[in-house]
Design brief:
Shape: elongated
Mean pLDDT: 91
Low-confidence stretches: none
Number of strands: 5
Number of helices: 3
Largest sheet: 3 strands, antiparallel
Radius of gyration: 15 Å
Helix content: 25-40%
Distance between the termini: 17 Å
Length: about 80
């Protein structure tokens, strides 16, 4: 059996401890806050999403990881 790599998008909300223990990589969802679209966990944090709601009363929206992002992610994984 070959090597196995576990991957998920950031909607899974795994703790850093679990991601490190099992070497799980995540690909970020997109979060739209107002007129900005940001990568979850990279350009915007959960705390910032909640703060945006508290201060504006408006929810952020999300969109799934696109095919190009997954393609790039797996190309990088194959190099390792």
């Amino acid at each position: 059996m070959g090597n196995v790599k576990i991957a998920a998008d950031t909607v899974c909300d795994l703790s850093e401890e679990l991601k490190q223990r099992y070497d799980i990589s995540t690909v970020p969802l997109y979060v739209t806050k107002g007129d900005k679209t940001l990568r979850d966990g990279i350009e915007i944090s959960q705390k910032e999403v909640f703060e945006h709601y508290r201060t504006t009363g408006k929810l952020c929206s999300t969109s799934a990881v696109n095919i190009e992002d997954f393609s790039q992610f797996f190309k990088e994984q194959l190099k390792e």
